[in-house]
Structures are given as structure tokens and as C-alpha cells.
Amino acid sequence: MLLSPEPLHIPDGFLSPIMAFLGWLLAVIVVGIALRQTRQQLGERQVPLMGILAAFIFAAQAINFPVAAGTSGHLLGGALAAIVMGPWAATLIMTAVVSVQAFIFQDGGLLALGWNILNMGVLTAFTGYFSYRWLWGKIGSSTPARVAASFAAAWISVEVGALSTAIELALSNTSPLAIALPAMVGVHAVIGIGEGLITGGAVRILQLSRPEVFEVGESAPGKMGATFIVCGLLLAIILAAFSPLASPNPDGLEFVAEQGDFLSRALDPSITILPDYTVPFIKHPATTTIFAVMLGTLLVFALALIIGRKASRSEG
Amino acid sequence: MHHTVDIRDLHFTYGDGTRALNGVNLYIAPGEKVALVGPNGSGKSTLFLHLNGILRGEGEVFVCGKQVQDDTLGAVRAAVGMVFQDPDDQLFSQSVFDDVAFGPIYMGYGPLEVDQRVDRALKAVGMQSAKGRVSHHLSQGEKKRVAIASVLAMDPEILILDEPSADLDPRARREFIQLLAELPQTMLVASHDMHMVAELFSRMVIIDKGSIVADGAIAELMRDTKLLEAHGLEAPCGFNP
Amino acid sequence: MHISILDIYHARESLIHKLDPRVKILASFIIILTTVILPEGAWVSQGVLFGLLILLSISARLGPFFTIRRAFIALPFLLAALPIPFLTSGPTAWVVPGLGWVVSSNGLIRFMTILVRTWVAVQAGILLSATTEVSDLLWGLNALRAPKLIVTIIGFMVRYLFILADEALRMLRARTSRSPKLAGVKRPGLIWQGRVAGMMVGNLFLRSLERSERVHAAMLSRGYDGEMRIFHQPSMKNLDWIMLLSILSIALSVIVLSLWS
After folding, report:
1. Beta-ladder partners of B33
2. Which listed site, A122, A170, A262, C255, has its alpha carbon 20 to 30 Å from A209?
3. pLDDT of C9-62, one tens digit each?
4. Is residue A280 part of a domain?
């Protein structure tokens, strides 16, 4: 019952050592910033509040509701945490949740913890937060608007988590992008509905009974800076994902095309896989290229970080 | 020798406009054991939170020779042993030892002194064997004892307890009352448990709607059934002063 | 009515349990890193790692099958790797009857490698959490330079996990008690169900918020000033160093072994 039902916890063995290291590096940086930001935001309340809310998310993940034929909808919680507490606090909260799940329950690997934190903690929190704020601004400030905005934000957050997980698996040569992407994003499009409904429901009850709780999230620090960071991270991941396709080696495009071919001809029993077929990421002569691209995106990311921090400091 | 508690004309209003305390005056001398009774929402807990500076109202609050203000908070919180109603709020550390050591550690004592204080405090409440245990595994009665130990370790001048006998089964309650009877510190206890109040205390303060409506000998006040009823209270049955 | 986090740590009188938490954490990482770094198809090396874990499990007085039994948690995620045998080029190992899908031997090796890696890694994790109390684990992480703040936050999380999980459980039970399945009556729709679940979550959130305020007040009452102080624990003993170095050397030799063959 305690195990998170979301199939986003990447176990060890699915990510290449380089990817795992990269994930840890980025996670350490982002969590470090989150610690500082929330300290400013919350002061001494920080520790008991973050801890108990992390316990809340964990417990809330057990609250389900029947969707169809024995399956149930659950909560991941990153978007909800961000809507109420702001993205940096949500990052800390979800980091605690994901870490406990990894270390104590082996739900998600230890080497993969870096990316798991980023996928389920950082990306869900930030995309959820920004979708919510943006939508809410556009739709209006009534309760139904809030609920609708949080539904959409929660759904988006889950999709983004799935997207990045698929890309990380692809970059590690574990699961080809053309299969992982639609599978992950597709499955989570449905799971995201559960996330959206629960998040919307929670936001609704909070708005009706204690609307002042939203003030924490609304006055959360570093909105501008956070935008840079999130966009940077997403951009970096997506660029890295498609870099082989952008490479001079045509294997990339050929690979995707053949995948499409393969899938459509799967039912024809007389066809076998073309003998000269290769999975490009494995036989790619330019592992160094990929490395270089990753390094480059890391630099872009770092740049975004520096600009972002300056921006968030200037607005306090 | 100074007072232990000296509250003068204390007013407090919550952020949402609720007037919680309306000109409260209270004087407690060292060694006294005082019961604070009143209906729910009368302001008992709010009053307590002023005694260690967590809430600040208008008026003057003196505790153990110091006025409660920003620069005295450390000393005040060491002198005031506040025990909250729900022991789970108070036992927030990883183990019993950690919880009882928390106070002394923040007072700045070294490891040896901390160890000694923890041992003494646990002994005073009869929970020495629980030192290494996780508070989650304790019974409600045991938790309440450890909660008391967690403040005893700071050598407070006054123990302030909020509804200490609530949620206890009869045996645990009996043991707890015995413990309170044995502890030498000055005490201020908020309780609905009129039997316990009659058994342990000689002075009773009645608070209602943020004001003190009566303050005197228990024997007298318990006889005044009209007064008690007017403030949502009842004398314990069979009470014979 | 207690949730299974209490079943994770298995107290035993064993050398492994008494090891410094830093050693256990590092050893786990070393084993996991090794299994992931080993080249594909390094079955002997992986076998040695697996044997090492069984050995450790036995010396922890947990029995040889302890970690194996609990390792099935990672199975669902293996679906993600399922396409690999079909999409990797190489000599044909097998053809799926009726569908004509070809499984290459390379692909099979890749898939099995991932399977083994995941399995070894999960078992290392299980051993770590079975032999190390949460408070020791957190201390160990802090001692290994994990940020004090995160470690303390996790400490609070674990402490209040049961309490909040109990509250959630009670809400679920209350909901079940009020949700009879009546014959012929249409069940309430998805949106309504989601709303109820959302309400429970929102409620739980408010209670958690209030709880954290009370805990904060209790902390202040005992002198908390915003700085978390973590107790010092004894330093590494000889046995700790021996253990750490042994595991490290086994890991290195296993890697060398795999490169050789």
C-alpha cells in the first residue's frame, strides 16, 4: 500500500552510469537552491513544516479512487505541493518523499535517485506551478477557475515527468525513444487524469474552507529565476534527447523510420528484421558527440541558473 | 524570592479578529500548584502560549523573574516546562533519548551533562528503560511521561501542562496523577478532569471567554455549583471538600 | 493499525547490523555502481556480486533468501526494457511463433543484463534498509556530507509518517463504511469519486499543516532556534574499515575479471 503506484520510479540498471551521474549533479544543484530559497521563505518553520508535509504527500499517495475495472487513480503530489507551497518548497518536499521511497522501500534506484528527484520532484513541481499560475491568470480567480487550473496543471506535471523519464531511458539506451515516449506519455495521459481530479478536489476544499493557505504559494520566491531554471532543464533534456537525430549520422532518422515500419509490419510473419538494422545509440560512432552535447547543455543550464538566481535575488 | 508567574492585564486577539484574552491577571507564587479550568475555547491554551513567548499580546507577562520579550526567550523557555496536550506534537525526534536531550542540547550543555540530565529526567518519570526506544512504539501513557521528561531535563521552575489526563485509560491516568503528585515543581495545569483537579490541587482558576472569572481555594469554588454551571463546568460527583 | 515501514528494519544481533552506517551506505553504492558498470553479459562477475549479497544477508542473520524474496518490486518497470530483445541487431536467437518477431541473441543478452543489474541493485538496497535503522541511516547520510537540512526534514517525515498514514487510513475506512455497493444502484461517477478523494487529501493537508504548527511550537518551547544540531557518533572501528575495503576490493576484482574474459 505504501508503494507509489506511479511507474515513474526508475530502478537502478535502467540508466547508464553517465546519465545517473548527470542526474545526481543536477539534482544536487537544484535541491541546494531549493534549500536556500525555502529558508528565506519559511524561516525557522522550514524543518517541521517541510518534513510533515512530506509525510503528508507520502500518506496522500495512498488515497485512491476507483477509475475503471479494478484500476485506481492516485496522487503523485508535486503539482499540489507546488500550488500550495510554491515550487521550491515543493521540490524539497518531493525530494524527501522520493528519497525515502528509494532508500527505504527500494521504489526507485539509488543511482537513479538523481533523475527520479528531478522528474518527480523538480519538473512536476515547477511545471505544475507555472501552468497553474498562468492558467489561473487567464481563466479568472474564482474557485472553479482555481480548480480547473490545478486540474490542468497537475495533468501537465505528470506528462512532463513521463516525458523526461522516457527521454532519460532513451539516452541510456534502455528503451528506444520511439517506443518509450508514446508509451510513457500515453499511459500517463490517463494517470494524469487521476492526478488532476485529486489535485483539483483538494484545491477546491482548501479554497472553500481555508483559502489563506494559498498565500504561501502565491508569495513564493524566485518566480522569474525558477522559470529560467525549469525552461533550461527541459530544453537541455529535449535537446540531448534529439541530438543523435540532429547528428550527421543518418542512423537516427533511419532508426525512427524503421521503427515505424517495423511496428506496422509486425503482423506479417514472413518479414524479419532487416539484417543491417542497428539501434543507433548503441553502435553510434559518436558517443563522444553525445557526451559533448550533454556537456554543452549542462553549460546552457548552468548559465540559465546564474541568470535565474540573479533575477530571483533582485526580486527578493 | 520572585513570583513564578505574574501576568498583568493581558489582551490578545488572533489574526482573524477573534478576541482570545480580555485583560487577564494571574499571579502564581513559587511552589504553588494551580488548576486552570474552563470550557473549550475559553483561552486556556492561548494563555499558556503567552507564558513562553510563543504568542505575544498586550500587557505584561513576567515569568520566573523575567519579563517575556525577545531577548529573554531562551531563558524563559528553559524555566517554563511546557507540556502540550498531544504528546506526539512534543515527541518529534527519532528516539526517546533524542527527545529528552533536545532541550538540554539547545541550552548549550555538553554531551556528558546532556546524558546525565536525560537519565535524571527519565528516572523522575519512571521511564529509564525507554531511552533507546522509538516514541512511536510507546503507549499513550508512556508518551505523556516522556513528554514530561523532555521538559524536566531542562530543570524548569514551573511545569505547565495542557490537559494531561486526556486520552489516558484509567490505569495510566492513575499512574499519571501519582506522578504529578510526586513532582516538586510549581505547576499550572489546564484540565477538564475535575476529579484530578480536586485530588491534586488546592487552588483553582476559572477562565471563560478570555477572562478570569474566579480564582481561589478549590474547596470553596467546587461548592459553588451555580458558578461552575455558568461556565460550563461541573463539580466531580461525590465531591466532599 | 501500523503501516509497514516498521517491517523494513529487521533487528538482529549481527556484525552487519553493528557496522557504521557510513560503511553500509557506501558498500551499497559500491555494489550498485559495480553491477551497473560491468559490461553486458558479464555473468560470472554479476554472479559473484549476487553471491556476495547472499553472504552478507547470511551474516546479517537474515537468511539467504531474505533479499531475493523482496526483490520483485522492480519487476513492473522491466516492461520498459521489453522491446530490447526485438530491436537489437545480431544473430537470431528465437522467432516468436505466429508473429514472426525476431529476438536476437545480442538483444537477449542486453535484456538479461538489465534484469540482473536491477535485481542486484534492489537486493543491495533491501539489505541496507533491513540492517540499518532509519535514524542511523540518516545520520550516516549526514556524515557522508548530505545536507543537514534535507536529512533533518526526512527525519521529521519518517517520524510523522505513521501518524499521517494512520489518519489517511482512517479516512479511507470511513469512506468505505459509507460506500455500500447496492445492487441495481448506479455507482457515482469518476468526477465525484475524484472529488471525494481530493477532499480527503485536502483535509489531510490541513491537519498536517496544523500539526506542523503545533510541533513547531513544541520545538520553540524547548529552545529551538532554527539551527539543527546533530549528535556526534563514534568513529569508524577496525571492523568498519575492513568491511569497507573488502567490499571495495571485491568490486574492483569483479570488474577486472569481467574485462579479462
Report:
1. B187
2. A122
3. 888 889 899 999 999 999 999 999 999 999 888 899 999 999 999 999 999 999
4. no
C223–B90 CB contact, under 8 Å:
no
Q: C201, A270: Cβ pair inside 8 Å? A: no
CB pairs under 8 A between B and C: 70
Residue B9 lies in a domain: yes
Mean per-residue pLDDT over chain A, rounded: 74
CA angle A148, A154, A158 (to 5 degrees): 150
- Is A291 a domain residue? no
Q: What's A183's domain CATH number? A: 1.10.1760.20
Q: What is the ipTM of this complex?
A: 0.92
CA distance A54 to A59: 9
Q: Nearest CA of chain C to the CA of B117: how many Å?
A: 14
Digit-coded pLDDT (tens) for A277-301:
233 333 333 344 444 444 544 554 4
With an 8 Å Cβ cutoff, is C222 touching chain B?
yes
Per-residue pLDDT tens over the stretch B191-214? 989 999 999 999 999 999 999 999
Nearest CB partner across the interface for C217, out of B54, B93, B106: B54
Give the model's pLDDT for residue B229: 87
Q: Identify all chain C residues contacting B89, using CB atoms and an 8 Å cutoff.
A: 211, 214-215, 217-218
A99 inside domain? yes
Provide the residue range defining the domain that includes A21: 17-221
The answer to whether B145 touches B180, Cβ cutoff 8 Å, is no
Q: Do B82 and C221 touch (CB under 8 A)?
A: yes
Instruction: Tell me if B105 is assigned to some domain.
Output: no
Domain count, chain B: 1
Q: Give the number of C-alpha atoms closer than 13 A to the C-alpha of residue C15, restricted to the C-beta side.
A: 11
- Each domain of chain C, given as residue ranges in start order, spans 4-142+235-260, 147-176+203-230
The whole-number average pLDDT for the span B17-22 is 91
Domain extent for B220? 5-87+158-230
Please enumerate, as own/partner, the contacts of C248-252 that have beta carbons within 8 Å and a separation of 24 or more. C248/C30, C250/C48, C250/C52, C251/C30, C251/C31, C251/C33, C251/C34, C251/C49
Q: B89 touching C, CB under 8 A? A: yes
Beta-carbon separation of C162 and B136 below 8 A: yes
Mean pLDDT of A151-175: 87
What was the pLDDT predicted at A275? 28
Strand residues in chain C grouped as ranges (E): 92-95, 102-104
| Position B202 in a domain | yes
Cβ neighbours of residue A125 closer than 8 Å, sequence gap 6 or more: A78, A79, A81, A82, A87, A90, A91, A94, A157
C44 at A interface, C-beta within 8 A: no
A6-20, A39-53, B178-192, C168-182: which is most confident: B178-192
The pLDDT of residue A239: 66
- Residue A205 forms part of a structural domain: yes
- Residue pLDDT, tens place only, C150-205: 999 999 999 999 899 888 888 888 888 887 766 666 767 777 888 888 899 999 99
Q: Does B98 touch chain C (CB under 8 A)?
A: yes
Q: Does C163 touch chain B (CB under 8 A)?
A: yes
